[in-house]
Amino acid sequence: MKLLEERIKSEGRVLGTDVLKVDRFLNHQIDPMLMQAIGDEFADLFANQGITKILTVESSGIAPAVMTGLALQVPVVFARKNKSLTLPDDVYTAEVYSFTKQTTNQIMIDRQFINPDDKVLIIDDFLANGQAVLGLLEIADAANIDVVGVGIVIEKTFQKGHQLLAERGVHLESLAKIKAFEDGEVVFG
User: Which of 114, 127, 131, 134 has its CA 20 to 30 A from that of 168?
Assistant: First the structure.
């Protein structure tokens, strides 16, 4: 997706050898027009799949997931990272390690929001080591729901996430694929 790549080049910041900061339009401040274009692109890529729900993990996956849900006219369910008083005990859970935060979270989805009749599309902001998506796939397996695919806004192909999803036979579509960071610059491919 050319528009996304242009925004990454102009506003993204490479930190070290494996972190891309895109807080000007995706992870802190959100550009709604860009998110709408992203949602439309995912809707086109996964059209005619019979999708009934979008799944994501809070918080940075929510904006592109909501816009995809809007384009597909289906609800969006996000896995929570923290249990609140309003969340029941009857939840699906999975452990997810965050590379950028260096923490492990237990993500959870209330069982009332997904069921075996659902055909879901997983949307997330980044694919690096694949832990968030694998956590959602674990929940989908536990709920016995069909995952039609995974849509990723930005994929770092030089990390292991892509391979882990390929091994599971997951239909993966990434809008921007980064093959390396060289001299503080993003290299797409």
Answer: 114
Beta strands in the chain (DSSP E): 13-15, 19-21, 53-57, 76-79, 91-98, 103-110, 119-127, 146-156, 172-182, 185-188
Contacts of 85 (CB under 8 A, 6+ apart): none
Q: Do residues 150 and 171 touch, judged by C-beta distance below 8 A?
A: yes
**Which pLDDT tens digits describe the chain residue by residue (189 residues)?**
999 999 999 999 999 888 999 999 999 999 999 999 999 999 999 999 999 999 999 989 999 999 999 999 999 999 998 766 566 678 999 999 887 778 898 999 999 999 999 999 999 999 999 999 999 999 999 999 999 999 999 999 999 999 999 999 999 999 999 999 999 999 999
Give the distance from CA 178 to its chain's centroid: 16
